[in-house]
Design a protein that fits this description.
- The protein has helices at residues 2-32, 46-69, 73-100, 112-142, 146-174.
- It is mostly helical and 180 residues long.
- Helix 1 packs antiparallel against helix 4 (112-142).
- This is DUF420 domain-containing protein.
- Pfam families: DUF420.
Length: 180
């Protein structure tokens, strides 16, 4: 039985590692495509939807923290899996937007410009890093490896919360410059 667990663990690790690399690479490749796909004007609404998704994800992360502090495992599980699901929906929506629309240039000047770019760059870098941590945290939770789950969540949670919140802040900072 122990051998089966080791094999399953290795398989899960391999999948998590592959996804942690493949997702950011796929996003980067899709963002680099210069020929945009025309799916209609409805796609111009996606940044607004993404801001709502990031806002809801932030709220769910905070609710999940509250529930676990209250030892409400069921509430924690629902909150965190809902945040994970929203993160997946966000990823699809984000890629779809950038596949169909040109990127918007930030038009702010003065002191706000470096603030915007600091938030944007830290958001992007940490959004790449957090994929591995979140996938690992979800795997450990689902597989009942709670000690390992707690250990990885020490990193995953603050990074994920930061990425979600800065996503909303960056959206509000660039929203006036959308052409739609």
């Amino acid at each position: 039985m122990q051998t089966v667990q080791i094999v399953e663990e290795r398989k899960a690790n391999r999948i998590i590692n592959i996804l942690s690399i493949a997702i950011p690479v796929a996003v980067a490749v899709l963002l680099g495509i210069r020929q945009k796909v025309d799916l209609g004007d409805w796609t111009t609404f996606l940044p607004h939807l993404n801001a709502v998704i990031n806002s809801l994800t932030s709220v769910l992360l905070l609710i999940g923290l509250y529930y676990i502090k209250q030892k409400n495992i069921a509430g924690h599980r629902v909150s965190m899996l809902s945040a994970f699901t929203l993160g997946s929906v966000f990823l699809v929506s984000y890629v779809l937007y950038h596949l169909t629309n040109e990127s918007t240039t930030f038009g702010g000047q003065g002191w706000i410009r470096p603030v915007y770019y600091f938030l944007l760059v830290s958001h992007i870098v940490l959004s790449i890093v957090v994929v591995w941590f979140v996938l690992r945290a979800v795997y450990y939770a689902i597989s009942g490896q709670i000690a390992q789950h707690k250990a990885v969540v020490k990193w995953a949670y603050p990074i994920w919360l930061y990425v979600s919140i800065t996503g909303v802040i960056v959206y509000f900072m660039i929203a006036p410059y959308y052409n739609h």
